[in-house]
């Protein structure tokens, strides 16, 4: 029999984690400001088109949540450069992660928005920070539940290294060397601008 309070406990845990994250982020060191993020996402868009200028079969899929603002910037740049609409989706990979059980907390999935088929498409998965590779592995599994793409490619705003799985990044905004114990976070400032900080 399930615990009726388990969902409520999950929400309380997430709120506590978010409050702690906010305190840590206040002490963070900025490594990429808004202008730097704009340059990095523009570079990613150019590299995607250099790989294949035909965007008729291209779809962009953001990994919820960090990948969403990055994917929106990349998608806008692609559409401006290619003069062609590029479909944008968002994929929650919570239930595909291999550490769900290890965390010991009931996961709280977020909305997935995939308003298109991935069959025969070139799917570019977009995330904010590439670390161990486990998030991307989970995202690939999730994409395959939506169909059979012609190819899956990976774009990330920041690659911080420390890979645990043999996952290759196709398009990188910026490589930032880090210590394994550090955290690299994309955050929105009070004025609405994005920045990347190390804590």
Could you please describe the fold and organization of this structure?
- By secondary structure, this protein is α/β, with parallel strands linked by helices.
- The protein has one domain (6-198): 3-Layer(aba) Sandwich (Rossmann fold), CATH 3.40.50.2020.
- The chain is 35% helix and 24% strand.
- It is built from 5 helices and 8 strands.
- It has helices spanning 6-25, 34-51, 67-82, 100-103, 134-144; strands at residues 29-32, 58-63, 88-91, 122-130, 151-159, 171-175, 184-188, 194-198.
- A 5-stranded parallel β-sheet has the order 3-2-4-5-6, with helices on both faces.
- α2 (34-51) packs across α3 (67-82).
- The chain is globular.
- The mean pLDDT is 89.
Task: Give the radius of gyration.
Answer: 17 Å
Mean pLDDT: 89
Order of helices and strands: HEHEHEHEHEEEE
The number of domains is 1
Which shape, going by the Cα principal axes? Answer: globular
Give the N-to-C terminal Cα separation: 41 Å
Secondary-structure arrangement, i.e. CATH architecture: 3-Layer(aba) Sandwich
Beta-strand fraction estimate? 15-25%
pLDDT below 50 for ≥5 consecutive residues: which ranges? none
* CATH class designation: Alpha Beta
Number of extended strands: 8
Instruction: Report the total helices.
Output: 5
Summing up helix and strand content along with how strands pair, one would put the structural category as alpha/beta
Instruction: Assign a percent range to the helix content.
Output: 25-40%
Please list the strands of the largest sheet in the order they lie side by side: 3-2-4-5-6
Largest beta-sheet details: 5 strands, parallel
- Do you know the CATH topology? Rossmann fold
């Amino acid at each position: 029999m399930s615990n009726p309070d388990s969902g409520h406990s999950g929400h309380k845990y997430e709120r506590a984690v978010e409050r702690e994250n906010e305190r840590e982020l206040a002490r963070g060191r900025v490594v990429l400001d808004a202008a730097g993020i704009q340059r990095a996402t523009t570079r990613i868009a150019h590299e995607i088109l250099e790989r294949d200028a035909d965007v008729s079969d291209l779809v962009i899929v953001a990994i919820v949540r960090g990948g969403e603002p990055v994917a929106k910037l990349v998608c806008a740049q692609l559409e401006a450069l290619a003069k062609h609409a590029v479909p944008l989706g968002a994929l929650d990979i919570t239930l595909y992660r291999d550490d769900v059980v290890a965390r010991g907390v009931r996961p709280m999935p977020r909305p997935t928005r995939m308003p298109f088929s991935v069959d025969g498409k070139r799917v570019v998965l977009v995330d904010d920070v590439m670390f161990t590779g486990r998030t991307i592995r989970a995202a690939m599994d999730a994409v395959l539940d939506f169909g059979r793409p012609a190819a899956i490619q990976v774009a990330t705003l920041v690659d911080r290294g420390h890979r645990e799985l043999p996952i290759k990044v196709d398009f990188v905004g910026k490589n930032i060397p880090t210590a394994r114990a550090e955290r690299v976070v994309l955050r929105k400032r009070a004025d609405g601008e994005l920045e990347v900080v190390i804590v």
